Write the structure tokens for this entry.
Amino acid sequence: MFYSFKYCYLLSLCFILFNACWSSSTNRNEHNPSPDSSQATLIAEKPLNTTAETLEKEEIIVKSAPATAPIDRSVILQRIAEKVQNKEALIVRVFVPLCDNEYQGIVPVSKALGNGQNPSSNLYWGAMYGLKTYFKRAKQWKLKASERPNNKAILERVIFEHVGNPSVYLIADAYDGSQMKACLQDFFTTASGSPQADIYLDETLITANGHADLVVFNGHNGLMDVSVSAPLNADGVARDAAVIACVSKNYFTDQLLKTKAYPLVMTTQFMAPEAYVLEGIVNHWLQQQSAKKIHLEAAKAYHQYQKCGLNGAKRLFFSGYAF
């Protein structure tokens, strides 16, 4: 009787262990697909829909291994605080590929808004919520210069100065809509701290080597259309970066890691990359606010104009890393 009980007990124990091992193996296969499996879902541009219901349902999550160690933003905040204390101007560089019906994978807009060779009427530049028009009306910013730099890909450069303290210059470049690759390359190069041309206001140097404290890409997500590899960090300096474009977290985070830029504001869904989002980010960034606070202000600005619900707008934006 004793041996029969002992035998049944051992048999039951073996059965339990077998099931546990099988379940563990199955779970590993479900959560860790083979190297041949895709880690990201490729997305084609589609019509913008920014209702609260869409923002709740369309979040796209991609898990991937970091290319290098994530940046601690406290280092960036310390450097910005030192510049402000020393009365040095903070520099924001913004890269805007003009909306282009012909050369970008977008849902076509009107001919004037989607003419990527005409900044004055373009959706992301000269239109009501385009960068140049919107910031010209903004109370905290004053237009100081509008010019065409010696770069065939850039159709116009504007320089805005922050009204009040701290001293901040926002330098924005409007790229020909057909020059998406050049725009992306320049964005990543600036994020990496690689040397570029000096930038002057009148005859005063405002940023040597084109360096910046905050680097922003604002427009159609060009990484959906072209392949660009970001360079490694060149100057040992960490800086903030924001990408105001559809589903930018999935496409830009790993690239920004290589440049040593912190993903301050990214997006998880499809959205309208208009200038009020940039204003919400920059006006609180220059106050040395936390990433969480800046994330919230971007969401507030988006909800104010898109009426998508604040909770939906908060899910649209993302700060930091998610691996």
Notes: Strands lie at 90-97, 141-147, 154-162, 168-175, 199-201, 204-207, 214-218, 239-244, 261-267, 317-318. Residues 52-318 form one domain. The chain has nine helices and ten strands.
